[in-house]
Amino acid sequence: MSCSKPRGECPGASSYGHSLHPREETAMYDHRRLGRELELFGTDPLIGAGLPYWLPDGAAVRHSLEEYVRTVERRAGYQHVYSPVLGKRELYEISGHWSHYRGDMFPPMAPEAGDAGRDGSEQVVLRPSLCPHHAVIFRSRSRSHRELPLRMAELGGMYRSEPSGVLGGLTRVRAIQLNDAHVFCTPDQVAEEVGAALELIVRAYRALGIVPARYRLSLPGPGGKYVGSPDLWRRSTALLTDVLDGSGLAYEAAEGEAAFYGPKIDVQVADAAGRESTLSTVQVDFHQPERFDLRYVGADGAGHRPVMVHRSIVGSVERAVAHLIEQHGGAFPAWLAPTQMEVLPVSGDQVPAAEEFARRCGEPDLRVRVSGPERGSLGARIRAARLVPYQAVIGAKEAVDGKVALRLRDGRRLDPLPAGEVLERIRALVGAHSTDLWDGTA
Ligand SMILES: [Zn+2]
C-alpha cells in the first residue's frame, strides 16, 4: 500500500505498515497457529477467505473483551446504539467514502433490480465505516448544546474488500467488528474529549496486558487525496499535538497516515514477526459534520456546527484478539481466559467435591472445567491445563476440609485455602480486570 494513500476507514482497521524485520513466523506466537491449536477460531474455504468463524473458546475471549469495552464506555459517559451494516450508496457519497475509498468497498447491490416495474436504481453497500450512520443518528432530532459532548458508541460490523492474497487469520479480514465511537462536541470540548479517549486506551491496554509499539501522530502526506481546507487540517493537527504533548506519552509524527478527512492519533502494535499495525485511534473531524450538515442549538439560540471525534479503544475485535493471542502466547489475563479455573480431583473419590467446587465457581460467573482422573495422571492434567490461570487441586484432605490447593499458571502453589476465600479473591481480581493472578504472597 502506498504511503501517501489516505486511510479511509474510521478507527482500527488499517492495513499493516512497514515490515520491521524480515518476515518470519515465530511459530509459537503466530496467532493463526495458536488459534488452531487452542481451538479459538477457524476458517473454511466454503465460507470464504477473510471470513473466520469463532469457536466456543475464542467466542468466550471475544465476549469478555466486548463486555469490558461496553462497560468502560458506559462508565465514561458513552451511549450505545446499533445501526445496520448496510447503507445506501448515497450515504457514502455524502460522507466522501464513495469517492475516496471505493476501491476498498464491496460493489453495491441493487435489492430491487429485476423486479418488474422497478428500475433497480436504489443501491446499497456493505458499509466501510460506521461514521455516516452515527452522523445521521445525531441529526435525527434537534440537539441542544446541553447534550454535548454527545458520545455515541457501537460495536458494529463493517466490511472491506481486501484482495484474497493478503487475507490471513484474524488480522486481515473482510468482515470486521469494530469498537467504534463518535463524540459530537463543540470546538472548545475537542481537546478534553481527545485526551479522555486517549486515557481510555491507555487504561484498556493495562487491563489487556498490551504493550504498544508506539504512539503515532498520523499526518497527511504528499500526493494523497484529502478533503477539507488547509486551515481545518492545521487546527486539527494542533489540537492533537497539544493533547499528545500534555499526555506525557512519547510519540512520533508520520506523514501519509492520516484519514482522508483528518489527522489522527494511532496506537501501533507489533506482531510476532515485528510487523506494525494500528490497533487504536483517535481522530478529529471537521469534515463530516459539514457534509451531513450537523448542527446543535447553542446557548445563543442559533445553530452551530459540532466537531466529530472518532475514536476506537481496541480497534477491531478481530485484530485485538489476534494481538492478544500473540502477546500472551494464549495465556490470557484471567478475566479474558476461555477457561479460568480448572478443577483437578486427585482421584475418583474427590470427583463429587470437585463438582461441588465447580458449581460454586459459577456464582462469581467463572468459566470452569473439571478434569477428572479419566483424563490421566494429575501431572498430565496439570500440564494439559498450563494456559488456565487457576488450577484447583482437590485431594482427600482438601475434600474433607472444604479447601482447595490452588496452583497459579505462573507456577506458584498456594497452601490449601477455604473454597469460599479462593473464590472471593479471584472474583475481585477478575472483576477488576487485573493482569495479576493473585493479590499478596503466594
Ligand atoms: Zn468514524
UniProtKB/TrEMBL annotation:
Recite the UniProt keywords alphabetically: Aminoacyl-tRNA synthetase, ATP-binding, Cytoplasm, Ligase, Metal-binding, Nucleotide-binding, Protein biosynthesis, Zinc
Q: Which Gene3D superfamilies match?
A: Anticodon-binding domain, Bira Bifunctional Protein, Domain 2
Q: Which organism is it from?
A: Nocardiopsis codii
The molecular function terms in GO held by this entry are: threonine-tRNA ligase activity
* Cited InterPro entries: aa-tRNA-synt_IIb (IPR002314), aa-tRNA-synth_II (IPR006195), aa-tRNA-synth_II/BPL/LPL (IPR045864), Anticodon-bd (IPR004154), Anticodon-bd_dom_sf (IPR036621), Thr-tRNA-ligase_IIa (IPR002320), ThrRS_core (IPR033728)
Hey, which family's this protein in? Answer: Belongs to the class-II aminoacyl-tRNA synthetase family.
Return the Pfam families for the record: HGTP_anticodon, tRNA-synt_2b
Q: What is this protein called?
A: Threonine--tRNA ligase
Q: Where does the source fall among the domains of life?
A: Bacteria
> Region Disordered: start and end of each range?
1-24
Q: Return the EC number.
A: 6.1.1.3
Could you tell me which residue ranges the Aminoacyl-transfer RNA synthetases class-II family profile domain spans?
A: 56-333
Q: What's the catalysed reaction? A: tRNA(Thr) + L-threonine + ATP = L-threonyl-tRNA(Thr) + AMP + diphosphate + H(+)
